[in-house]
Amino acid sequence: MSADYGSFATAIKEAAGDDIVLMSELRIAFFDSADRQLDLLSRSRCDANWQYSAWRLQSLAASFGVEDIKNLAHAAVVGAPGDPVVLRELGAAIEKIRDC
To answer: Are the C-beta atoms of 30 and 64 separated by less than 8 Å?
Structure first.
């Protein structure tokens, strides 16, 4: 799955304009929320909690134009709760964007 880091950067730029401080705050907010939802997914013990966290992550990714995370979160929604492959792929996708 290819990552579209340009969309993430573009979404941040469009929201913050030339305000570098706001850009930084938006990046921090995105990663705080993405990390929180991934943590909740990894600790989910029932279908409802798994789906709720996956939906939240899917919405977050859509808001920031991150299609690969949005698609992986959708795979979590329709897949088996606790799927370790999806969890690993989501974690890797988040880290790839964090490093850009």
So the answer is: yes
| The total number of structural domains that make up the chain | 1
Half-sphere exposure of 15 (CA within 13 A, CB side): 18
* Residue found by looking up tokens 């992986």 in the block: 72
pLDDT value, residue 99: 83
- Residue 68, classified by CB atoms within 10 Å of its CB into exposed (0-12), middle (13-18) or buried (19+), is buried
Exposure on the CB side of residue 90, measured as CA atoms within 13 A: 30
Q: Which residue has the tokens 């799955």?
A: 1
Structural domain boundaries, residue 69: 5-98
Please list the ranges in the chain whose pLDDT falls under 70. Answer: 1-6
